[in-house]
Amino acid sequence: MKMNEMEALLKDLAPVIREFVATSIDKAGDGIRSEIKLRNEQYNARLTALEAGQKSLADAYEGGWRKSRTYERGVLVTHKSSLWLADCDSSSEPGTCGDFKLISKGGQPPRAA
Questions:
Q1: Over 16-39, what HEC string results?
Q2: How many Cα atoms are found within 13 Å in the side-chain-facing hemisphere of 89?
Q3: Are residues 38 and 65 in the same domain?
Q4: Residues 6-23: pLDDT tens digits?
């Protein structure tokens, strides 16, 4: 095959190759866009569920500790003038085991985390 014949052949093939590459990229792009859309929808659903269950600090405070109660993880109670955070579901007295974390000792400012 002569050089000018090869050039003519390549010139004729160029649009076919260009279209093939463009179509392949579009198909790959469609797949990527679909995957991104699906993941975005999944993340939005998870975020909505998390936000729906979110409590404010005011909602977490349950007043003074009482023996007769079981406190859920994440609630705040006062006991002996101190503020305690339940680290797990517990009916134990704050300060007697590791079920509650001391947030602020009676008469003292809150400590840094």
A1: HHHHHHHHHHHHHHHHHHHHHHHH
A2: 2
A3: no
A4: 888 888 888 888 888 888
